[in-house]
Amino acid sequence: MKEVITLFKEQFESLGIIFRISSYEDRASYQSHYLGLVWEYLYPLIQISIYWLVFGVGLKHGQNSGVDYLPWMVIGITPWFFMNRATLDASKSIYQRAGMVSKMKFPVSALPTIKIVSNLSSFWTMLVVSVIVGLLYGIRPSVYWFESIYYFFCMIMFLLAFGIFNSAVSILIRDYHVLLQSVMRMLFYISGVLFNFETGAFPPTVTRLLQLNPFFYVVSGFRESMLGQGWFWQRPVLTIEFWLFVLFFLLVGSHLHYKFRSRFVDLI
């Protein structure tokens, strides 16, 4: 637990440099492209259009809990896009910044957080798009929308814990990042992003196993908030299970990080 406290202390002490570097990375990523940062938002919009055509139109999955498929899908896919990219970027953050780690005194634990923050701009844009799509389909603001603040906090805490864990393991096991990419592709289809597996079409045991996925908790939570379908305390078991996952990755990730941090440069 002492290592977890140290981890959060370093995050707060490094907030200034975290935001400065993440802002620089946003501009640097697409500076050689004609459309620049437009690609940051254009690419997910193209993907959303494809998924809507395939699953919403082609496969006739038009209704989910009485909601049209497009807003239902867009609301869920918005946090997924952010979590997927932030997870993969954070996992290789220390490896990519080996030069910075070796040449200057820098809080290495802040590197995964920088990747999370640098992806927030596209998340906010996509969130605005999902709200606009919802309004066009008759979804109106309600008091449930305030619950999205809680799920945003859940998302950031999970990404921080998962990021510090993945970034350390990626240094210790060189093939881990490749494995993580494959796992994230699989999780995309079993996290309730494109279809609702809680409708009774799946056996209860399978549904219960899929609900253990922390990505599902965040995706379904944003949907419940935006669609006004319930409060997080009405699903206490899922909430407890989610925070246990966060605690596990925080404890194990921070332990691995501080145990091997002095050897990161040599391991890279």
Strand arrangement within the widest β-sheet reads: 1-2
> Helix segment count?
14
Rounded to the nearest angstrom, the distance between the terminal CA atoms is: 27 Å
Overall number of domains: 1
How confident overall, as mean pLDDT?
82
N-to-C order of helices and strands: HHHEEHHHHHHHHHHH
Helix-strand makeup class: mainly alpha
- Largest beta sheet, briefly? 2 strands, antiparallel
Q: Which regions are unreliable across 5 or more consecutive residues at pLDDT < 50? A: none
Q: Write down how many β-strands occur, each being a DSSP E stretch of 2 or more residues.
A: 2
Report the radius of gyration as a whole number of Å.
19 Å
Query: How much helicity do the residues have?
Result: over 70%
Shape: globular
β-strand percent reads under 5%
Question: Which characteristics define this entry?
Answer:
268 residues, mainly alpha, two-stranded antiparallel ribbon, 2 strands, 74% helix, membrane, transmembrane, ABC2_TM, transport
Summary?
The chain is mainly α and 268 residues long.
Structure description:
Strands 1-2 form a two-stranded antiparallel ribbon. The chain is globular, with a radius of gyration of 19 Å. It has 268 residues and is an all-alpha fold. Helix 4 runs antiparallel to helix 7 (110-118) and helix 4 runs antiparallel to helix 10 (176-190). A hairpin with a 2-residue loop joins strand 1 (63-64) and strand 2 (67-68). It has one domain (1-29, 37-261). Helix content is 74%, strand content 1%. Residues 35-260 form the ABC transmembrane type-2 domain. Belongs to the ABC-2 integral membrane protein family. The chain crosses the membrane at residues 37-57, 69-88, 109-137, 149-174, 186-206, 232-253.
